[in-house]
Amino acid sequence: MTAGELAQQLKARFGDLISAPVEFRGEFTVELSDAECVAEVCDFAKKQLGFDYLVDITSIDNYGADPRWTVAYHLYGYGHRCALRLKTRVSEEVSELPTVTTVWKTADWHEREIFDMMGIRFRNHPDLRRILMWEGYPFFPLRKDFPLAGKPSNVPEVAFTNSAPLEGGPFVTAAGGKSATAREPRVRPAETDDHPEIPQAAKEGK
Amino acid sequence: MQTQTEIGYNSKVEGDVVHTRLDAAINWFRKNSLWPMPMGLACCAIELMAAGASRFDIARFGSEVMRFSPRQSDVMIVAGTVTYKMATAVRRIYDQMAEPKWVIAMGACASTGGMYRSYAVLQGVDRIIPVDVYVAGCPPRPEALLDALIKLQGKVGREPFLSLQKRVA
Question: What are the strands, taking DSSP E only, across A91-158?
């Protein structure tokens, strides 16, 4: 049993809900078109396809695009030793999808982390609290529109935050620079980057 | 006024009597038994442990008694990254320490936030508690910490202890 075959089985069961599996460097990814079905699909993946281990759940902020959020589930099976990535997209207006704690208990903390850092809620989660930041912290720091330096906040008796001095930063590296001088971290605003030593392809992130 | 007098004592000459100033005597006791409160928050704490172990041996400077109770310690060694979430706890532990008390900020993170210019990290522990000695390094070598301790001992030794006391009529 290979990961590709398992992905095909998932597609065979759910039809149009699941996209055709995409292979990249031996890893298979399927996209789920309706985030509301994620618990159902995961339940099938665990019980019928043997994905007994949820490695991680991550979230991506596609800032400026719609739908804004991507939630990625990384599945693994100790029986067949195959991995599969399941992605689904959630719009900013909804920002909510069903929990998979009913399938894998380990999803509890993964979902809490996504809620804490990105502000995506998980319906019917048993204990949806912040996990890294404290209760009362008003922002979601991993969102693209949140500044790296942070924002001031204060929860009396618990914690406060201030903006960090970036001294002209953030300091960013440029991949593809010819010399070490061109590659090392510098103050490099994305819009006004005219560094002659950096190839155009590297600037565009290709 | 400087009170860095070395106490030279020759029992044959002076019998059982030592002449000194109270300031100097008290500071001498204090500076040679600075008990640390190890506020180990990140990798600097590993170097702090090395400073306590046999190769570097912080006991040579009278500071081997790591007290995990703030009530029994004199100097807080903040070793590591102070996050905003931890800041309140650090402040509270500092408040619980009995006077007189001193603080060593060990390493770049405790001194300035270090490489963490970030929403989650306090930009230097001196934003919440007064720091006596800053130690550079990421992490500093145990020798650097011991040097900071010697510097602090110098500072404790120069403290005009009696003139700081309130006069009771």
Answer: 96-98, 121-123, 153-155
In angstroms, the CA B49 to CA B2 distance is: 33
Separation of alpha carbons B141 and A123, rounded Å: 50
H helix intervals, A51-158? 107-118
Q: In chain A, which residues have their Cβ closer than 8 Å to the Cβ of B116?
A: 164
Cβ <8 Å between A149 and B119: yes
Q: How many helices (H) and strands (E) does chain B have?
A: 7, 4
Interchain CB contact of B157 with A (< 8 Å): no
Q: What is the pLDDT of residues A8-50, one digit of tens each?
A: 999 999 988 999 999 999 899 999 999 999 999 999 999 999 9
* Residue A5 buriedness (CB in 10 A; 0-12 / 13-18 / 19+): middle
The amino acid at residue A157 is: E
CA of A158 vs chain B CAs: smallest distance (Å): 7
CA gap A20, A33 in Å, rounded: 11
| pLDDT under 70: residue ranges of chain B | 1-14, 166-169
Q: How far apart are CA A131 and CA A123, in angstroms?
A: 17
Mean of pLDDT values over A176-200 = 65
What is the per-residue pLDDT for A164?
86
Give the closest-approach CA distance of B95 to chain A in angstroms.
14
B17 touches chain A (CB under 8 A): no
The number of residues making up chain A comes to: 206
Alpha-carbon torsion (B21, B23, B28, B33), positive or negative: positive
B105: tokens are 């900020």
Q: What is the Cα–Cα distance from B51 to B137, expressed in whole angstroms?
A: 14
Q: Do the Cβ atoms of A153 and A138 come closer than 8 Å?
A: yes
Q: Which of A54, A170, A74, A70 is nearest to A118 (CA)?
A: A70
Task: Indicate the domain borders of chain A.
Answer: 3-161, 166-206
Superfamily of domain A3-161: NADH:ubiquinone oxidoreductase Nqo5 subunit (3.30.460.80)
Binning pLDDT at 50, 70 and 90, where does residue A148 land? confident
Each residue's pLDDT tens digit, B85-96: 999 999 999 999
Contacts of A170 in chain B (CB under 8 A): 117
**Cβ(A27)–Cβ(A83) below 8 Å:** yes
